[in-house]
Amino acid sequence: MTGMTGMGAFLRSHRIGIATVVLLVAGWEIAAWLSPKTVLAQTPLVPSFGNILGESLLGMSDYWKFPFWAPITSLGGEQTYLGAFLALGWHTSLTVLRLLAGVFLGTVLGVGLGLVLSWSPFVRRAAYMPLGVMRMVPLLAMIPLFQFWVGTNTAGVISFVAMATGAVLLVGTVNSVSNVPARYVEYARTLGASRLQIFARVIVPAILPEMMSSALLVLGLAWSAVIAGEYIGIDSGLGRILTFAQFMSNTGRMALVTLIVLALAAASNVFVRHLIRRALEWMPESDRR
């Protein structure tokens, strides 16, 4: 009974959002029914959800290349749902690992360099304009350079993600430090704190709420960067599946990969928000916003 009451309360509080989703799904299905088919794959330009979760999902078994657990379709094996889920699991895990490695490296470099720059007001002022220019560099324009610098491999994708996330976190760290109220520093000085103690025990904790907003921004950017890196120049991962699907004009497979990335991005967003709440439990509720 309690569960039904909670479900009713949830539906009432989210009725507008639920209605919007229903309308979007209905509009998508109508567009799928009306749209023409592609030349190569003979799939609708706007694939229906039946096509996405049926034929397109089954076709993902084409990307399973290991000689065990499921047939290899390129060697004459039949398409199976087991092979499709194995292929999606394998390529998704590769994409997620590249994203995690890139975000970790970008966080260490971006936040670390941001704190180093913020240590000196002179250095911070000197770096302000170059940082602003760096933040405006189009990410996609950097992919060919990373292919030459690092190579068309996993290291190149990780480096690209690290560059994309590190640049945002670098600028966010510098801005967060500059926004710390001066009275915090003055109070610490009156208590006899040294410059290092002020930086470690006052400034760094004070920038956490603002940095958490940068973390959520970086998370979305990281998903875009890792898919773009795989899409342009690597032979595995969800981005590479998109490349093959586009080459064959298979809109159903492209839509399926998009839904998977959307679900992963949403799940990671919920997870990071949970970590943020746990990390800021020591702060008053009003200061977390």
Keywords:
MetI-like fold; globular; MetI-like; transmembrane
Give me the CATH fold name of the domain at 93-288: MetI-like fold
DSSP, total strands: 0
What's the CATH H-level superfamily name of the domain at 93-288? Answer: MetI-like
What integer value in Å does the Rg equal? Answer: 24 Å
Low-confidence stretches: none
Helix content: over 70%
**Whole-number mean pLDDT:** 82
The rough form would be described as: globular
Task: Quote the beta fraction.
Answer: under 5%
What's the CATH first level of the domain at 93-288? Answer: Mainly Alpha
Distance between the termini: 35 Å
- Strand pairing plus helix content: what structural class? mainly alpha
Q: What CATH architecture label of the domain at 93-288 applies?
A: Orthogonal Bundle
Order of helices and strands: HHHHHHHHHHH
Largest sheet: none
Number of helices: 11
Keywords: Cell membrane, Membrane, Transmembrane, Transmembrane helix, Transport
Domain ABC transmembrane type-1: 92-272
Membrane topology: Multi-pass membrane protein
Subcellular location: Cell membrane
Could you provide a short overview of the structure?
With 289 residues, this protein is mostly helical. The protein contains 11 helices and no strands. The protein has helices spanning 2-13, 15-34, 49-59, 81-119, 121-135, 139-149, 154-178, 182-190, 195-233, 238-247, 251-279.
